[in-house]
Amino acid sequence: MEKKLVRCNINGKDVETYLDVRSSLTDMLRNDYRLTSVKKGCEVGECGACNVIIDGECYNSCIYLAVWAEGKHIRTLESLLGPNGELSDIQQAFVDEAAVQCGFCTPGFIMTAVKILESGKEYTREELRKQLSGHLCRCTGYENILNAVEKTMKKRLGKA
Amino acid sequence: MYDFSALYEATSVQNAVELMQAHPSAVLIAGGSDVLIKMREGKLAGAELISIYKLDELREVTMDPDGALRIGPMTSFSHATNSPMLQKYMPVLGESADTAGGPQLRSIGTLGGTICTGVTSADTASTQVAYDAVLEITSVSGIRKLSIHDFYKGPGKVDLQPGELLTAILIPKESYENCFGYYIKYAMRNAMDIATIGCSVNVVLSPDRKTIRRMRIAYGVAGPVPMRARTAEAALNGMPVGEAAIAAIGEEVLKDVNPRTSWRASAEFRKQIISETARRGLKAAIERAGGVF
Ligand SMILES: Cc1cc2nc3c(=O)[nH]c(=O)nc-3n(C[C@H](O)[C@H](O)[C@H](O)COP(=O)(O)OP(=O)(O)OC[C@H]3O[C@@H](n4cnc5c(N)ncnc54)[C@H](O)[C@@H]3O)c2cc1C
Ligand code: FES
Ligand code: FES
Fold first, then answer.
1. Does the residue B293 lie in any domain?
2. What is the domain-level CATH number for residue B28?
């Protein structure tokens, strides 16, 4: 199959690789760059397990052709890791609030949370529900996830 | 890995229509939120793809010299919601886009793709129909324009010939000027669900805001394709703003629609929703236009 050079910036680093053009962005991130926080859940855009940030917007990478990543800035959960392996505040909040059970949905949720938090806006609980509505979780029942995001948002805004 | 046999990436509109002519059986892919799903289901196994994803010139929302809004077909749902031009002149389009799927889907799904599928439930389609959108279609032999009403041919069928690319959705000035719209999506879940009924209403009131000068109403899922309720429109035009008009619309729309029974909802239930969304949508649109009850 035809291969194509794809250059992009992943987690702050300029990278390039020759790809099978049939790859999804999930395939590229997992197989070529070993970014295994990007999960394969449904692979049809329903569950959000494969969610990453591309040029500041959230996308399900399972329904995104890898060749479309050319020239884009992509962020995955791995970018949140501190220099000594520390967790970021939002990851710690997921731990503290028991918002993780099996963990399969967690990286996707957290990348949407990153977008929410970086907007610098304060959202109501209802608005947060809407913003997080592109993710399925089979374990937690969502309440603890909402708590984790809401608390981190308030902390960052100096309101908690 | 997707199961396609070749990928041609268009570098310009001209290049895209040339690729379409050179590869007549290839499938065009815009945001891919239908094509890639079908491919996963095995329905397009081995197809060739022509991608227009990188054609940023098709992602803009601008105004033509004649005042028409020119919406690039690659405008994503979320960009429609955030577009200053649409927020100013036609906020209902971005609001309807904001009800589709979930946030990630709204980054990828496009306004053009959503009508080219010919699907009746598409959330932004009824608003485009309610504003008499004009579609600009480009091929190697030139550009043609047609009304969105003539574009829809039947469920999943639209008037796109091989080699034809939708290059703009035009909203005529007389459609949006002094006009206030409202969209209601009725679905079983609050997110990630297909509309049971989608209802897009818009009104132009008289200068004293006491009379409905022009009312337009379009539905998704009330028939095989997104459709206008013309009998209801004719009955409401000229009526005074008030509860009588609201009651009338709920009755009149039933003369136009033909919903079906499916596992999502019975035809009877859809009729109830059709009346109720008409009443609520008209009331909200009138209030946005400054009318008081
Ligand atoms: C998980 C999920 C949830 C969804 N939920 C909703 C929802 O709630 N509401 C809703 O309305 N939709 C929903 N959709 C449907 C989907 O997002 C829309 O139909 C979408 O807008 C299609 O646009 P696209 O560019 O992604 O399509 P594509 O898959 O790229 O294209 C769709 C079709 O249109 C053709 N096409 C696209 N652009 C052009 C063009 N410029 N010229 C000619 N032909 C063209 C393609 O050839 C193809 O046949 C959902 C989809 C998914 C995967
Ligand atoms: S794996 Fe991509 S949305 Fe489910
Ligand atoms: S923690 Fe198991 S799916 Fe969310």
1. no
2. 3.30.43
Q: Which residues of A touch B78 (CB under 8 A)?
A: 57
Determine the distance separating the centroid of ligand 3 and the alpha carbon of A148, expressed in angstroms.
14
Q: Using alpha carbons, select from B195, B181, B4 the residue that is nearest to residue B86.
A: B181
Residues with CB under 6 A from ligand 3: A 100-105, 137-140
Residue A83: inside a domain, yes or no? Answer: no
For range B212-227, the mean pLDDT: 96
A32 inside 8 A of chain B by CB: no
Entry pTM: 0.97
Query: Three-state SS for B202?
Result: strand
Range of the domain at B218: 178-288
Q: Do residue B20 and residue B110 come from a single domain?
A: no
- Give the pLDDT means over successive 10-residue stretches in chain A (160 positions): 94 98 98 98 98 98 98 98 96 98 98 98 98 98 98 95
Cβ–Cβ contact A146 with B under 8 A: no
Q: B131 to each of A2, A111, B60, B90, B214, how far by Cα in Å? A: 44, 37, 19, 9, 12
Q: Does a structural domain hold residue B224?
A: yes
Domain count, chain B: 3
Q: Convert the pLDDT of each residue in B256-288 to its tens digit.
A: 998 888 888 899 999 999 999 999 999 999 999
Residue of A nearest to B31 (CA): A64
